[in-house]
């Protein structure tokens, strides 16, 4: 007669606990990927591969920029996780991909993979804010030269790009309204560039402005929108494209407001 216990616990209870752990692991992996700038098809592919590795061969998932759903193969119930914030942190994306690959390859047990994902979720991999500001300022100066600007305008693009980045991050931290932060940051950059040129120190208004706002341009968002559309994820592609358009519109509106006077 078959023993219905294993280590003092019913076998059905152990199976239920393992299934819940697996669902938590898949959803956390998908949530981390979506929050940190991964493409929609990458998120779905990662979750399905992890599910197959745990013998859930007929599972289904549906991912959008604001939430993801997962339905295991042996249940009618569907789990849902809300995506409340999105940013660009490719370090986390790479780490989650590494954990998923190890789980699929059998190099990690399910519980170990879940613990590593929770560690990734708790750890802040972003560079120090002053290093981010320096990177934004340096990128602004490099874009000015790349666009054929005068070397004498390089300090202005360097300073204005870094200042605009500070303004955007400060407002974003206070209000959590990305489009308003981008608008105010672009407006400030436009005002600073206009004052520099009108005072006689700056030479080319266009290249100073364009170089300074480049760190604010949603390049990764546009790329992911196009890649999702090409992969057939029209809901995610269109929503990401709309977000990129609104961000670009906010930046353009801030500059246009300055140049209209």
List keywords for this structure.
10 helices; three-stranded antiparallel sheet; mainly alpha; 67% helix; disordered N terminus; 261 residues
Protein described:
The chain is mainly alpha-helical and 261 residues long. It is 67% helix and 7% strand. The strands form 2 sheets. Strands 3-4-5 form a 3-stranded antiparallel beta sheet. A two-stranded antiparallel ribbon has the order 1-2. The longest helix is centred in the last third of the chain and has 26 residues, at 234-259. The chain is elongated and about 70 Å long. Residues 1-14 have low confidence and may be disordered.
Query: Can you count the beta strands?
Result: 5
Average per-residue pLDDT, rounded, comes to 87
Describe the strand arrangement of the main beta sheet, using strand numbers.
3-4-5
Distance between the termini: 88 Å
Helix content: 55-70%
